[in-house]
Fold this protein.
Amino acid sequence: MHEQIEQWRIEAEKWLDLQKAADLLRGTKNDVFAEMTSKMDGSSEAEKQRLARVSPEWKAFRDSVVEAEAKARQAKMLSKYADMKVWAANSENANARKERGQYQA
């Protein structure tokens, strides 16, 4: 049982780390876009923004945000799965105790 709890802790820690990375990327999105826009050649702010939005650098940044969020979601599911395994083991243990007559409701 302790191994299952430790596995849950490890999976939850991975999830939190990946979620933090995704949150940091998402949080810098406007700053990164503003920096890219400022480097674009264009006669107006709208043109600079349009050029920034179609740039390979912006696409790569957006893809990295999406990938980080996907990894965080996957880690969250693994954490929930580990949590469910702990819950199921607890339930099985309680049922076994009840069947042996060691548990009184």
Observations:
- Helices lie at 2-27, 29-39, 45-53, 56-99.
- The chain has a mean pLDDT of 90.
